[in-house]
Design a protein that fits this description.
About 40% of the residues lie in helices and about 25% in strands. By secondary structure, the chain is an alpha/beta fold. It has a single domain (about 1-120), classed as HUPs (Rossmann fold, 3-Layer(aba) Sandwich). The chain has a 5-stranded parallel sheet, sandwiched between helices. This is Universal stress protein family protein.
Length: about 120
């Protein structure tokens, strides 16, 4: 089985990745990181750096890039990998914003083929 997470260079993305690494280690399973294609050139958080950091954590992993909608790519990757868990990061919202969950997060929660763990930064 697999734990799937998206890689975004923001506090929510880093918290989701950290939690996904911990989940994959505790479940003794692979980690599949889905990153937007633009992540390949993001400096210190580039895909090469990401792979090196994951190697240090000692978790088996694959990193794939996706074009277009990241929420759709995450759900598709989870279905293909027969994932046991998807980890997503959420940010704090204003009182009005709490009424509406982010559209990407909402689509992942509704369309995911497995449980979703939402973490806040």
């Amino acid at each position: 089985m697999t734990v799937v997470v998206s890689h975004l260079n923001n506090p929510e993305g880093r918290q989701a990745l950290s939690t996904a690494v911990a989940e994959a280690r505790s479940r003794a399973t692979r980690l599949l990181v889905v990153a937007p294609s633009t992540a390949a050139a993001e400096g210190p958080d580039s895909l090469a750096e990401l792979g090196a950091r994951l190697d240090q954590f000692g978790v088996e992993h694959d990193v794939v890039t996706s074009e277009g909608d990241l929420a759709e790519a995450l759900v598709t990757a989870a279905a293909r990998a027969r994932a046991e868990l998807i980890v997503i990061g959420l940010r704090r919202r204003s009182p009005v914003g709490k009424l509406i969950l982010g559209s990407g997060a909402q689509r992942i929660l509704l369309d995911a083929p497995c449980p979703v763990l939402a973490v806040k930064s």
